[in-house]
Design brief:
CATH superfamily: Beta Polymerase, domain 2
Radius of gyration: 13 Å
Shape: globular
Order of helices and strands: HEEHEEEHHE
CATH topology: Beta Polymerase, domain 2
Strand content: 25-35%
Structural class: alpha+beta
Number of domains: 1
Length: 123
């Protein structure tokens, strides 16, 4: 049986994934990393089309987090001028908003290939 905090985190991660898909995030998926590291349970990854799209999705995540009583611990771009990849840390959930170029270069799905994909947006 899944523990309660894990179940809540999984539900929240899938909720964020669905939110991103509803707002045109591309190839959205939720990966379960809980058995692979000690610092987070889930990655939510979505492809963005521009820095404006990235900012809009961040705004939706911020509003969703507030309504679901989730705390954003930090938001950072991978480098200060980076328009390619933004990371949003919610503790047991880490959201990656990436351009297609960054997603192809960093290949997080391949890097964390042992993680189970628990939800994927319909193409």
């Amino acid at each position: 049986m899944e523990d309660s905090s894990y179940s809540k985190a999984k539900k929240a991660a899938v909720g964020i994934g669905k939110l991103l898909g509803d707002h045109k995030g591309g190839n959205v998926l939720v990966m379960d990393l809980s058995g692979l590291n000690a610092w987070t349970d889930f990655f939510v990854i979505a492809t963005v089309t521009s820095s404006t799209h990235m900012q809009g999705l961040h705004k939706h995540i911020k509003e969703h987090a507030a309504s679901e009583d989730l705390t954003i611990l930090r938001r950072q771009r991978k480098t200060p001028s980076d328009e390619e990849w933004s990371l949003i840390d919610l503790g047991n959930i880490v959201v990656h908003l990436m351009t297609n170029k960054a997603r192809l270069f960093y290949e997080l799905e391949r890097l964390w290939s042992d993680a189970q994909i628990v939800w994927r947006a319909e193409p």
